[in-house]
Amino acid sequence: MSREPDGRRRRWCPGLAMSAILAAVVLALSADGQNTDNVCGHPPVPVNAKLVRDGAKATFVCDDGYRLFGSESITCSSNGAWTGDLPFCGTNVAVHKPTNQSTTARGGSSGNANDGDPTTVHDGRRCTETLKEPSPWWSVDLLQPYPVRAVSITTRGCCGHQPLQDIEIRVGNSSAELQRNPLCSWFPGTIEEGTTKILSCARQIVGQHVFLQLVGVEGSLSLCEVEVYSTEEFSIDRCAPGSSSAKTDVAVFDNKCYEFNVNRGASFADARQKCQATGGDIVYGFRGSSSTFLAAELERRKSRLKTQLIWIGAQKEPGLTSRTWKWVNGDVITKPTWGKDQPNNYNGEQNCVVLDGGREWLWNDVGCNLDYLHWICQYTPTTCGSPDIKVNSTIASPYTFKVSSVIEYVCPEGHATQGSAKRTCGSNGFWTGSAPSCKYVDCGPLNGIENGTITLEDNGMTTFQIDGQIYLQPELQSVKWRRQKDMC
Known about the structure:
Elements: E1 2-3, E2 9-11, H1 15-29, E3 49-54, E4 57-62, E5 67-69, E6 73-76, E7 82-83, E8 88-92, E9 99-101, E10 133-134, E11 137-155, E12 164-172, E13 183-191, E14 196-214, E15 218-219, E16 223-230, H2 236-239, H3 244-247, E17 250-253, E18 256-266, H4 268-277, E19 281-282, H5 289-300, E20 309-316, E21 325-327, E22 352-356, E23 362-366, E24 373-379, E25 394-395, E26 406-410, E27 415-418, E28 422-424, E29 437-440, E30 452-456, E31 462-466
Domain Sushi: 38-91, 382-440
Function: Acts as a defensive agent. Recognizes blood group fucosylated oligosaccharides including A, B, H and Lewis B-type antigens. Does not recognize Lewis A antigen and has low affinity for monovalent haptens.
Domain C-type lectin: 253-369
């Protein structure tokens, strides 16, 4: 604080408090009501996306392995607000999951619609097909509930098959009464042959079962590919980034990466060592839907296996009389899923466990030194995807998206952070918490000072001319002007 020759006192108030003071003083003292031109702040950014900004246009690019739905850009309008709906970046959570349909005709099994092959030609039995019947349907079990945002349908493109029309999509957790699940989308028209149609849910719906039906139509339902998109799973590219994804046999489920080593063999110890060398471990701790997922993935690869015995991370505690089995992380296995006549502990040295394709991928105890068995590695990504950002906020530099790293959101001057400003990249590959928002702090007009005046000068300095002494103390949390120590 400094003193002028005429006895006035000057005080410079930086930061948020100063911004609020300037705004309040302008409201109180401006005679003509003029304001500066509105300018859009930092645009919002959806999760799993990067921002490319070009002046008044903000364009979004999805992280590797994610698909963009909606308009790829939004624009800054003359009133200082971003216009356009924010897109989202999702990944397909339906590929290779269990399927079903009302009937099957001419080799068009239900699994052809989520085999990862988008061909529109049914020759060679590559699409689904039902009999001609009233309201035929198809469904997929995602094995766990996902928040579903959109469904992509690729139709059959030849041979004069009846086009899809009046199609309805439902998403929910009921497997017994699929028609009672919440409605995601309804398309009352006809979808052209050999095309891909994206049907977005009117709102995000959380569900395990996705159900497609031709409503009120008597005909045959044929689908070449159905993809279900969610933001709550990471893509295969996050597990095997870049060019390595083409060389690695990887699948993703329940926020875990599974690497299927089915082209080589190793003992239990060697297999586990190879998994640990890449930051993971031999597959362990799975049950329920994860067991179903692994069994289905192995069944799909069965023709390529040299042996149908696959190492998993379970071992028996030492001791001839011990009957306790543990996962490799030390947890006791309470409900092992043994195959028929297992475990038999043949020759007293079968202390390791495999998934046995000859027993419907149930468990079998074997000797740990067998060196020709395949194995599955389990791990999570070493990084998180691009975090979402609310309008007007930014992420402070420098930052990294590696596991355990912390990012901090920053609001512009004159705004307060609503929510936690910090998020951590968790070991599961997702950011903790949610993105905070920025709220403009409006203290209202600053009341006049008794026995004094307030003058706002062009250089941003506020001059107080008073008879007595008044101190101004910045305080970020208060949103009202208070007497004694005028603060916002």
